[in-house]
Write a structure and sequence with these properties.
Layout (H helix, E strand, L loop, with lengths): L26 E5 L10 H11 L3 E6 L2 H13 L4 E5 L5 H15 L4 E4 L14 H26 L6 E6 L13 H20 L5 E8 L2 E2 L1 H11 L3 H10 L7 E2 H12 L10 E4 L3 H4 L2
Parallel strand pairs: 1-2, 1-4, 2-3, 4-5, 5-6, 6-9, 7-8
Helix pairs in contact: 1-2, 1-8, 3-4, 4-5, 6-7
Length: 284
């Protein structure tokens, strides 16, 4: 068996995707495609999974160096990549992303909205700015990108697919004080349903992935900041909360993303695909 093209570059657990042609010829724009550490983020893993499935990828991140790092990995995976620095909530910058994507690849088949922010604060102590920031990034930004994607996809005979990344906190109270994050992601859920049903007869599908407790660079950084040297112990306690006894990772979300973008999911739209190891079912 040939060595995986990303061997030695990123962690490749048994569930990491292998190269395939499931999305051959497609172009995917991934917002929030960078990682804040050495562990894959949801957006970075999605970009790599799309590339491994044969898609060209536009890797968009607030930080250019993070977008470029992901683009290099996409190239190593055998894919075509364009790195773009942009604020997902800035209308003009998002327009530039789509202009560059069309200039580079000629079409947009997949939009993946992963950029998000989660400020932890009790409601009585939450600054208004934190609430507004949550909705600007978690709800307004996917709207801006989806609107532009729709305009392009409606001109394409093959249509397209939009996947939004939500959180289990949008459907269950997870015991964490981030009301702005939960509420803005809940808004994203319903936006996804509206997006899907308005366009169901126009060859455009839209779904949201609802991840539970995952191990990513962002989470690792948060645990280290909150618990210091006890971060590993905190991670073990976090894993124990999951019915399956372990936390998922970015590849779990990435695999679901490739599935939703593929022809295998041609009859799936307007859905919230929960990827949480049973966490939300136990809390129901």
């Amino acid at each position: 068996m040939a060595e995986h093209p990303l061997a030695g570059r990123v962690a490749l657990p048994s569930h990491a995707p292998e190269p395939s042609g499931r999305l051959a010829g497609a172009t995917a724009i991934v917002f929030g495609a960078g990682s804040s550490g050495d562990i894959l983020s949801n957006g970075q893993a999605a970009a790599l999974a799309y590339a491994l499935a044969g898609a060209a990828v536009v890797a968009v991140d607030l930080y250019r160096e993070r977008a470029e790092a992901t683009a290099r990995l996409v190239g190593a995976a055998g894919g075509l990549a364009l790195a773009v620095e942009a604020q997902a909530g800035d209308e003009r910058e998002v327009e530039t992303v789509f202009t560059l994507a069309i200039e580079a690849f000629g079409k947009i088949d997949i939009l993946h909205n992963n950029a998000g922010i989660a400020d932890v604060a009790a409601i009585e102590a939450m600054p208004t700015e934190a609430w507004d920031r949550a909705f600007a990034v978690n709800a307004r930004a996917p709207f801006l990108a989806s609107r532009l994607a729709l305009r392009q996809m409606l001109m394409q005979p093959e249509g397209g697919v939009i996947t939004n990344i939500s959180t289990v906190g949008s459907i269950r109270y997870p015991g964490i004080a981030y009301a702005g994050y939960a509420a803005s992601k809940a808004a994203l859920n319903q936006f996804t349903v509206q997006l899907a049903l308005e366009n169901a007869a126009r060859n455009i599908r839209a779904n949201a992935i609802v991840p539970g407790l995952l191990h990513t660079s962002l989470v690792q950084n948060q645990l280290a900041k909150r618990y210091g040297r006890d971060g590993q112990a905190a991670a073990r306690e976090r894993a124990a909360l999951c019915p399956m006894g372990f936390t998922g990772d970015a590849w779990d979300v990435a695999n679901a993303s490739v599935f939703l973008a593929s022809r295998e999911a041609r009859y799936i739209t307007g859905q919230l695909l929960i990827v949480d190891g049973g966490l939300s079912a136990r809390c129901a």
